[in-house]
Structures are given as C-alpha cells and as structure tokens.
Amino acid sequence: MKYASVIVDVPAMQTDRSFDYKIPEEWQDFLTPGMRVIVPFGPRKVQGFVVETKNSSEFDRLKAISECLDLTPCLTPELLKVGHWLTEKTLCFKISAFQAMLPAAMKAKYEKIVTLTSDQSIEHLSDQLQPFFNKKNQVDMKEIEQDVPLRIIQKDIKNGYLELIYKVKQKGKKKKIRMVKLNCSFDQLAEKIKAVNSNAKKQLTVMTYLKENGIRIIPVADLLAVTNVSDATLKTLISKGILVEEYKEVYRDPYQDRLFEKTKALPLNNEQQQAIAPILSAVENDEHHVFLMYGVTGSGKTEVYLQSIEAVLNNGKEAIVLVPEISLTPQMVNRFKGRFGSKVAVLHSGLSTGEKYDEWRKIQRKEVQLVVGARSAIFAPFENLGMIIIDEEHESSYKQEENPRYHARDVAIYRAEFHQCPVVLGSATPTLETFARAQKDVYKLLTLKERVNKRSMPSVDIIDMREELRSGNRSMFSTALIEKLTDRLEKNEQSVLFLNKRGYSSFVMCRDCGFVIQCPHCDISLTYHRFGQQLKCHYCGHEEHMPNVCPECQSEHIRFFGTGTQRVEEELVKVMPEARIIRMDVDTTGRKGAHEKLLSKFGNKEADILLGTQMIAKGLDFPDVTLVGVLTADTMLHLPDFRATEKTFQLLTQVSGRAGRHELPGEVIIQTYTPENYSIQLASKYDYDAFYEHEMSLRKSHAYPPYYFLALVTVSHPEITKVVSVTDKIVQFLRRNVSNESKILGPVASPIPRINDRYRYQCMVKYKREKNLHETLRKIIEHFQQEMSSNDLMITIDLSPNTMM
Ligand SMILES: Nc1ncnc2c1ncn2[C@@H]1O[C@H](COP(=O)(O)OP(=O)(O)OP(=O)(O)O)[C@@H](O)[C@H]1O
Ligand SMILES: [Zn+2]
Ligand SMILES: [Zn+2]
C-alpha cells in the first residue's frame, strides 16, 4: 500500500499540517508530490496538495484519495520547499503559501481538457486513447477518464503526445480563433475552380488565393483581409463543402502581433564592464551571491542585466527578471523580447487569467527560458534557475500586502541559494536595508556612477510654492515651470509633468462649515472622481453621488479640493492652449492596452506634454524629453509612515531620471511647500550617499529598520471594545514573552482606525534578536483561533511591514 501526505484547502490553525490518505492502486505509479488531489475531509470533499508519498503511515483507518487533479505536478519539489519556508517566514497557512505560487487560472473553476500536442501525435498514442482523437484534437477529460486508466493518459503526457490543460470558465474571453481549412486536395481545388460559375467572382478570389499560395488552413480574419471578401462568401464555400470551419486554440499572447526589432549586445563601457565581471564569474562558477547594482538613472543597468542573462541562457539555464508592475511597460518588455525573442514569457496583472496561465504553461513546458514579470513571477516553476534579477529593488510593490505577506526579495534569495545562482538587485535609490547590507559586504556592491556616454544628470531647480503664492501666483504652476514648458514647446522638445497622488486625494469639503465627506464605513475621506460625479472610497469600494449641497449645513459651497490630474490638465490648457497633452492616470488607462497606446503616442511625438501620476515615474526612456516637472513634491512626506522620506527621495530621483537620457540635456523643476526638507534637498543634488547617512542616523535613534526588525499585529472587529480588549491582551502576552531588549508599541488605533465597518487597533514589536518571536506570535493566533472562526475577529501579523497603515 502507498500513502500520500496531503495539505488540505481548509485554511485554519488546526488543519495547518499534512493529513495521510491511501493512494488507490491505479494511481500508485504516478501520483507524485506537487500534484493536486481531491480528498474526503470530514463530511466534505476538499482540494489538497500532495507533499509526500510513502510506503507506510503511522495512522490506520485512512481514507483514500478521491480524485487526481493533475497529471504533471504543478509545484516542483523546490517550490514545495519554498512553500514550507514561506509558512515559517510569514506565519501563513501552508495552503495559502502553495496557492500563492500558482497562476489564478488553477484556482478558479475550470474544465480539464486533454489535447494533442501536434497533428502527428495521434499516431503515437496508446491504442485505448486513439479513438478519442480521431475526429478532434481536444477532448474533455471527463469523457476519457471513464474508459481509460489515468496512468495510460499520464504515460502519453510524459511522452509528449498529449497535454492536460485547464480551461477557465470565463465569459467572453476569446481563447480560440476561427479558421477555415481546405476540405480537399489542391488538385481537387483546381477542378472546382474550373467548375465554378465565373459570376461568383468572390468565391473564385478565395479559392485562387488559397491554391496559389498553397494555403490549407488560415485564420478567417486574415483571409478576409487579404482577399477583401465578406464572411458571406466564406459561408457559401463552407456550405459547398470546399472549406470547413475550425476553431483553433492559440496562446493568448498579448504581444503576439507586435514585431520586435532584434537588438544586439552593446559594447559595455568601463563601469558596466566592471559591474558585470563579478556577475559573469558567479554565473560561470555556479556561485550564489547577492549583488547590489547601485547605478544612477540612465547608467545602463538594463544593458548589464541583458548581457548577464545572455550568459545564463548560454549556460543552458533559466532566469527570472522582476520589474515593478507599473514599469512593466511595452517599452520595457520590448527590451527583453528584442534581445531574447520567443524565449521570453511575460507575467503581469494586465493579463487576463487565461493569458497568465498560457505564459505559465510556457514555463512549465520549458518553452521559454526567461520570465519578465511583476512580484508573483518570482514563483516561476523553472527547475534550472541560473539567475534572478530584481530591478528597482526599492519598490514597495515587491511586498505582498495580503497572506502570505512575503517580500519577493526574500523569496529570490531563498530560491537562488537553492539553485546556487546569483541574485542581482538593481536601483539608483536602494532601500536602506539593502544598502546597509552592501556596506557590510553581505551583498556585493557594484556601482555605476555615471550615465551612459557621460551624459550629465539633469539640473534640478527647487521652487518654493509659498514664495509663488506671496508674489501673487495662485495657480498650481510656478512661473519658472510655465517658462520652461513654453520654451520646450518652441523647441519642439517634450516634457513630463508628474503629479504625486499617493497619500493625497481630491476630497470634498464644504467651504462654509468645513465638513469633509467621509466614507460611512471607513474613517477616511472619499475621493472625488469627476467621471460620473462619483465619490469613492479607496478602501472598501463604497460609492456615492456628489451632493449638491452640504449634508451638514445645506450650503451650496461644497467643492472638491486637491489636484487631480484632470484639474491639472484643465488648468494647463488655459495657460498653454497650444500644447498637446496626454494624460495618464487610472481614468485614462483603465481599458486594456490604453496604457500602451498613450505611451506610444507620446513616443511618436504626437504630444508635447505627458501628464501623469506614479505610472509615469519609472522606466520611461524617451529621447526628446528634456524637462520634468514635479507639481507637488511633498504630498507623501506627511504620511504616518517611517519610510515616508525615503519614499519621497526615491520617487523624486526616479522622476528626475526621465529627463535628458539621450543627446539633449535635461532639466527638472520640483515644486514644493517644504523646500528645506532634506529628502527634497538631497534628491535635487542626486546625493544618495548623504541621504543614506542622514536617514540611517534617524532610524537608529528612533529604533527603526534596518537597525531593528518590526512585527506588526493588527486586530479588527466590528465592535471597538472588543478590538481594544483583544489588542490589550496581545500586548500583555507579548510583554511577558519577549526580551527586555525589544520594544513594544501600542495598543493604539491604526492610522486608518476603521475600514469597512471594522475597527482597527495595532501593536508593534521592534526587536533585534528574538529567537522565539514566531513561536510567541503563533501562540497568540492559536489562542484566539476560536474567536477568529466564530466571532468575526481578525488578527493579521506582518513580519516585514511596509506601511503602517
Ligand atoms: N554600453 C552602452 N553603449 C551605448 N548605449 C548604452 C549602453 N548601455 C546602455 N545604453 C543606452 O543608454 C540608455 C540608458 O540605459 P538603461 O536604460 O539600461 O539604464 P538604466 O540604468 O537601466 O536606467 P533607469 O534605471 O533609469 O531606467 C538606454 O537607451 C540604453 O540603450
Ligand atoms: Zn457645510
Ligand atoms: Zn470605505
């Protein structure tokens, strides 16, 4: 008898371990760890992951596995290890860790389909399977399962003749394209052409086209386009039996119809050569090191990545490149596709569930060797990893803000250790944590001090907006900014205007009584969206219509405050009516592909000014951009977050880096109400080193990372008294169980004290060494387990909190 240990999909403390099941006879040969199964669990049947198979079990009276969901493991042995580690590291349930590593398609409802890998495969199929594929190349798994044992199907999958795929039940998603196929030989076609009535010109056109070009099968859309006939003509040919219709599954590659200009490795300059040498040596010798490539904007970091990857692929290994979601622009993707073509899979949240699954399958089937993607691409199921690159290492989006609360950088280092390969972290403004490690030689520091071709960094002017106001300028643009924008317009150069929206929204306030409209469920003001005159809550999604009068005092003087991009655009049109403006924000980029269209319009110089939010801060590389304006530099400075200054510094540096990247020199204007703030001052001088020193001393005196580690416990419940008493108990328990060296802050209300009608309290542990902290935190969860499942209590623990919100 064989047994399987299974982690079941019941996310709770009591079930957060593996359970043993019997493996039915017919599946014993092929059931391997990493496959998903359905098992009886109490009165129900649940999904689970097989984590181990074995010949004996210490338990008796075991139930048997009811169903196998995979015929190929969806998690490699290494990823299973990563899952266990994630559980330890982030205190999440094992099942959450495993599920986080799979594409969404495999968590949704789906049908299982078995398909032939190619037309020739049918000849090699087992006798029992052949009949299913005589007429079609895709068969529902349910049909086959009834007659053919799974191990026979699995054998043909292993041999590469069949593939099992999951088809997500999705509405309106196109995953097949309509094709027409010739239903006779070319000789027969020639006969038919002679026989056709010469009045049927359109039919003749189609038939002749197919014959002369030797085409047997073609997408309908293409055929219609080249022959200029209508669908009705094809229908006639189909009804005559000359053509047959067929739907063919295609990879939903969103970049498929773009052509990539092939690029070649550029000769590296001196600094680049010095930076790449140790990386290449690690690749050659299969050594695990973490490199920090600290290079100013435009210093050619990406070129170094590309050539390092080339070495990895030449070595027969695979690579993962993480880039922040918002800089995963077509421009960025093109740089990788241009160099590595079809060896690249791209994973980002703009793809549909099906598209993501297609890209993931390319990795699993070893059809690609390189993945470029956002955070979750770190779980790409490569088995022969040769390098992991994290571009813009400092980006906060690398941390997942829901369970499992992991940081992609930690996962990268863990995986790279396993594969004995290098990790390259790149940034012009590394996080203090990372830079501190590089200073201590835990990470190897590689420095690119100069821009490519010794181009100078753009010069930065800080404009004090309070001065502007005093001298009578009440608009949102300083005199200097307007002057420079006008100058660029005259010279036919381009400008980028950046509006820092984070932590700053357009709220609605009554000018008479000062009443601010708040979300009825959360203690936060609603954000005004001009589109549809709606007020929205960014935390719970609540929406309401903009009122005409103040709900408090009935005054009509109720207005929205704050500067949305739309407002800026309107104001800008007033002062510079002749400028062509492209606005990029959530409203203009909501539709799929819109982002890309707007950027390529700007790239083609169909506009003079690109106006946008965070979205335009990164990765953009346009040769004619010579001016960058930051409208309000300080909106983020005042967030209740110890990283607020660091984030401001990073953002200002990134934005400034968009100007003067090619032949033309660049200029930057930073408008601010707090010009004396050191992060603004030092960003304007590109002085990361001084910023690092200054910020480190503050972190030290306030006991924040990187000097201390943090653990944040957040408690929420619909009743405030409950929240307070639970948080209080937690704090007391922590005090009894951590060392004197550690500091415990709280209980206090969270910076947003109520979300979605739930009150929120928190406490924080600051510690240097605390061997038993995980253990202690686990005990807390265990203690409240009962109330968490029955009494609507929620406790979340974040062991690397990014924000304090
Ligand atoms: N060795 C080289 N010779 C000539 N041009 C180069 C070289 N390396 C990079 N470049 C070019 O210089 C420009 C800036 O390089 P790249 O985008 O790689 O810099 P980066 O450091 O990644 O920038 P950022 O972090 O600001 O996005 C690009 O247009 C790139 O093609
Ligand atoms: Zn009022
Ligand atoms: Zn709300």
Automatic annotation (TrEMBL):
Enzyme Commission number(s) from the entry: 5.6.2.4
The prosthetic group or cofactor this protein requires is: Zn(2+)
Residues holding Zn(2+) 2: C519, C522, C537, C540
Q: Which residues bind Zn(2+) 1?
A: C510, C513, C550, C553
What's noted on cofactor binding? Binds 2 zinc ions per subunit.
Keywords, A to Z? ATP-binding, DNA replication, DNA-binding, Helicase, Hydrolase, Isomerase, Metal-binding, Nucleotide-binding, Primosome, Zinc
Task: Please list the residue ranges annotated as the Helicase C-terminal domain.
Answer: 545-699
What sequence ranges are listed for the domain Helicase ATP-binding?
282-448
SMART domains named among the record's database cross-references: DEXDc (SM00487), HELICc (SM00490)
Question: Which reaction equations make up its catalytic activity?
Answer: Couples ATP hydrolysis with the unwinding of duplex DNA by translocating in the 3'-5' direction; ATP + H2O = ADP + phosphate + H(+)
One molecular function GO term is: hydrolase activity
- Assembly notes: Component of the replication restart primosome.
Function statement:
Initiates the restart of stalled replication forks, which reloads the replicative helicase on sites other than the origin of replication. Recognizes and binds to abandoned replication forks and remodels them to uncover a helicase loading site. Promotes assembly of the primosome at these replication forks.
Q: List the HAMAP family.
A: PriA (MF_00983)
Q: What family does the entry list?
A: Belongs to the helicase family. PriA subfamily.
The name this protein goes by in its record? Replication restart protein PriA
Q: Which organism is it from?
A: Metabacillus halosaccharovorans
Gene, per the UniProt record: priA
